[in-house]
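Please, why this fold?
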Amino acid sequence: MYVAEISGFQLDDIKTFRPDIAILTNITEDHLDRYDYNFEKYIASKFRIAMNQQANDHFIYCADDEITMKYIDKFNIQSNQLPISMKTELSKGAFIKDGDMYVRTGEEFTSMSVYDFALKGKA
C-alpha cells in the first residue's frame, strides 16, 4: 500500500494514474499563476484526482468545503463518493457528532470517540 500526496501541478499531466482511494480535503486559491489566475482551471485540476477512478474505487471529499460542494456535480466522478463532515450528519461517509466520529460506507457503520484520535484538532 502506498500513500502519496499529489499536487494539482502533478495532476495536470496524468493520463493513466488511478488511485484506489483519492482524497480531496479542500480547494483554496493557491498557485493560480499556473492557471492564468483562473480559479476554475485550478478547481478542474484538483478534481482530476478522480478522473480515472472506476466504480470500485473511492473518492473521499470534504462536504464542509463550499468550493468542493459547488463544483462536485460538474465532474463525471465514477467512483464511490464518500464525503466527510465535521458539521453535518451524513447518510453515507464520515461525520462527527456528540464527540464521536461515525463512518457509514453502505451497510457498514462504525464509530469511535474523537478523544481516541492520535492527532487532535481540525485539519
